[in-house]
Fold this sequence. Notes:
Blueprint: H1 3-7, E1 9-15, H2 17-20, H3 26-30, E2 33-34, E3 40-41, E4 44-50, H4 55-65, E5 74-79, H5 90-99, H6 120-126, E6 130-138, H7 142-148, H8 157-167, E7 171-175, H9 178-181, H10 189-195, E8 199-201, H11 204-208, E9 216-219, H12 228-231, H13 235-240, H14 244-255, E10 262-268, H15 270-276, H16 280-304, E11 307-312, H17 328-334, H18 342-348, H19 355-377
Parallel strand pairs: 4-10, 4-11, 6-7, 6-10, 7-9, 8-9
Antiparallel strand pairs: 1-5, 1-11, 2-3
Residues 51-52, 90, 93, 272, 314-315 line the site of zinc ion.
Amino acid sequence: xxxxxxxxxxxLGVAGTSLLSYPLHAAEAATWVFDRKGRKRAKNxxxxxxxxxxxxxxxxxxxxxxxxxxxxxxxAMMDMSSANxxxxxxxxxxxxxxxxxxxxxxxxNVTADGKSNLPIWQKFQKAGKKTGCVxxxxxxxxxxxxxxxxxDSRGNQEGIAMQYLDLRFDVLMGGGAKYFTERADNINLxxxxxxAGFQVAQESREMQSxxxxxxxxxxxxxxxxxxxxxxxxDAVLMQKIPTLAEMTAKSISLMKDHDKGFCLQVExxxxxxxxxxxxxxxxxxxxxxxxxxxxxxxxxxxxxGQTLVIITTDHGNANPGxxxxxxxxxxxxxxxxxxxxxxxxxxxxxxxxxxxQIHDVILHAQNPLVRLYRTHHGGTG
Length: 381
Ligand SMILES: [Zn+2]
């Protein structure tokens, strides 16, 4: 690989555990899919994307969890530049995986000269597989949409929601209720999904009652789902909003018995939103929530024996790191006791709040850092 192209590459981890390392048992071999050359082929695919996960995010989460010390994944690099930029956006990235062609940023499976490519989940649907996407951002957002639809603009999320009605993917879960219920055309699309035979959920409890007899749509918040850290501090949110791992587990349980297999995309979409906001607690805890979903997928794959799990990111973004000073470890450790994200703090601050009131909000939400500051300067304000 030329040095220059190596520099522009991003990371890709492939855990083909079942394909690479487990002995074959006769009964199991009977259910295998083989290609013309007699090579085993995965019956199921779980494609996992931590959106905008830069190396710093992965490294900090790795420090936290020892993610990759078990040596399970096979790692590779890939060049994610889009048709019109060295820096891709999520739409072009997902389209390059989903359509196999580089497209301009902002487009979904539509090339620069306006040609539409058939998205990969539609191809697998035609091959008789069950298909699904789960995410922590709207189900109509760039990464899930890049596997599912063609659209001249990633921004046309109301149009994408309408396409989903006709395309009838088996599982769609995440956020984005407003693209179904607060639409410019005033159509209540959720009602249309119900009339078309979809099971529709807006709360975890309803998701848990999904059965595999008909397609399901779960939209658990107006836009993106709450950050994992804030959700974990709120009993109402914990009851109403499922985690990415729970949506992944439910999706697998709905599709795993299908004789022709299934394909599932799992996206930690708010990792990217947190990175855009330089919100380190939001970033790290949503990366950890993504890792919980990775565990669900790997546990299933190791048990199932016929599933390929791909874990990747589409591009870098804000790159968290630790400053070199005597408090580097304390800085990292402070993440462990944080209760809330920067976004949550900003939502608490009201016009007219005093400095002390703001201090108290920060102290409550992310206490250790502030304490360090206070001891240093010995007084308030
Ligand atoms: Zn992205």
